[in-house]
TrEMBL record:
<keyword id="KW-0479">Metal-binding</keyword>
<keyword id="KW-0001">2Fe-2S</keyword>
<keyword id="KW-0411">Iron-sulfur</keyword>
<dbReference type="InterPro" id="IPR001663">
    <property type="entry name" value="Rng_hydr_dOase-A"/>
</dbReference>
<feature type="domain" description="Rieske">
    <location>
        <begin position="37"/>
        <end position="146"/>
    </location>
</feature>
<dbReference type="GO" id="GO:0051537">
    <property type="term" value="F:2 iron, 2 sulfur cluster binding"/>
</dbReference>
<dbReference type="Pfam" id="PF00355">
    <property type="entry name" value="Rieske"/>
</dbReference>
<dbReference type="Pfam" id="PF00848">
    <property type="entry name" value="Ring_hydroxyl_A"/>
</dbReference>
<dbReference type="InterPro" id="IPR036922">
    <property type="entry name" value="Rieske_2Fe-2S_sf"/>
</dbReference>
<keyword id="KW-0408">Iron</keyword>
<dbReference type="InterPro" id="IPR015879">
    <property type="entry name" value="Ring_hydroxy_dOase_asu_C_dom"/>
</dbReference>
<keyword id="KW-0560">Oxidoreductase</keyword>
<protein>
    <submittedName>
        <fullName>2Fe-2S ferredoxin</fullName>
    </submittedName>
</protein>
<dbReference type="GO" id="GO:0004497">
    <property type="term" value="F:monooxygenase activity"/>
</dbReference>
<dbReference type="GO" id="GO:0005506">
    <property type="term" value="F:iron ion binding"/>
</dbReference>
<dbReference type="GO" id="GO:0016705">
    <property type="term" value="F:oxidoreductase activity, acting on paired donors, with incorporation or reduction of molecular oxygen"/>
</dbReference>
<dbReference type="InterPro" id="IPR017941">
    <property type="entry name" value="Rieske_2Fe-2S"/>
</dbReference>
Length: 209
């Protein structure tokens, strides 16, 4: 049953199937999580070259790391050889490269293929063609944002513009020094519920402090 004609103060929830239907969830993965900018990590967690984090974005595992030139890089967390997961840990640090645990294909911090067993005996393999698959990435306000879309929406419009519309101009926001904050504690909840229920619960004004 769908209730209509509610007063403005009572924003209705969606019909039940939007929280349970697999086909709706699949569309959300494609059209929301895999198409929009996703806040994936704190930049302070990638303080040194070789530091990395992995995160799930839609249906893909994404590897985020700090390169030797100080920039943040993001890749699909899969080896280009047989598609094995490259990094199985949530976070960590490597010295020079990422090595696949399956067949030891090895990639530099910039994602380039640098070594593989018997690679010299495979002259038809062009190293430049078999680097890790890049994911669009931006660093702003001490956060790392990624987007899986081949042609991502404008970061300036969709992220910076949205923040500005709520909190004021960019210069005023940046004066807060949010990038200097540190993570004091991380609490992770594994909730058996559709993601929209979590968001709606968070946005419910009765729950505001």
């Amino acid at each position: 049953m769908t209730i209509t004609n509610l007063p403005p103060s009572l924003i209705p929830t969606l019909p039940g199937e939007y929280y349970t239907a697999p086909e709706v969830f699949a569309q959300e993965q494609e059209r929301v999580f895999e198409a929009m900018w996703f806040c994936a990590a704190r930049a302070s967690e990638l303080a040194r070259p070789g530091a990395f984090r992995t995160c799930q974005v839609g249906r893909e595992s994404v590897l985020i790391s700090r390169s030797r030139d100080g920039s943040v890089k993001a890749f699909l967390n899969i080896c280009r050889h047989r598609g094995a997961k490259l990094c199985t840990e949530e976070s960590g640090e490597v010295k020079r490269a990422f090595q696949c645990p399956y067949h030891a294909w090895t990639y530099g911090l910039d994602g380039k293929l640098v070594a593989a067993p018997n690679l010299t005996s495979m002259p038809d393999i062009d190293r430049t063609e078999y680097g890790l698959i890049n994911v669009h990435v931006r660093e702003w306000l001490g956060y790392v944002w990624v987007c899986l879309a081949e042609n991502p929406p404008s970061f300036e419009a969709d992220v910076i513009g949205d923040v500005v519309s709520r909190l004021g101009d960019v210069e005023s926001i940046e004066r807060y020094g949010i990038e200097n904050l540190s993570v004091g504690r991380r609490i992770v909840y594994d909730v058996r519920a559709n993601w929209k229920l979590i968001i709606e619960n968070f946005m419910e004004c009765y729950h505001c402090a």
